[in-house]
């Protein structure tokens, strides 16, 4: 059995509403829409409900 880690592809700050998406070409997060508050210490919506681990059975 192996485990695959699936990182998040998008995130939103719960404080200022800033939305970001992951860009594979740039290998980093990019703003997707409004910048939100540039002085915000972002609280991303990635929490216990996001499951990055997926178990798979190898034959």
Automatic annotation (TrEMBL):
It comes from the Archaea. Residues 1-55 form the HEWD domain. Pfam families: HEWD. This is HEWD family protein. It comes from Halorubrum pallidum.
């Amino acid at each position: 059995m192996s485990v695959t880690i699936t990182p998040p592809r998008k995130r939103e700050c719960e404080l200022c509403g800033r939305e970001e998406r992951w860009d594979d070409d740039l290998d980093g997060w990019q703003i997707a829409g409004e910048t939100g508050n540039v002085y915000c210490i972002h609280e991303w919506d990635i929490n216990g409900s996001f499951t990055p681990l997926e178990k798979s059975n190898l034959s």
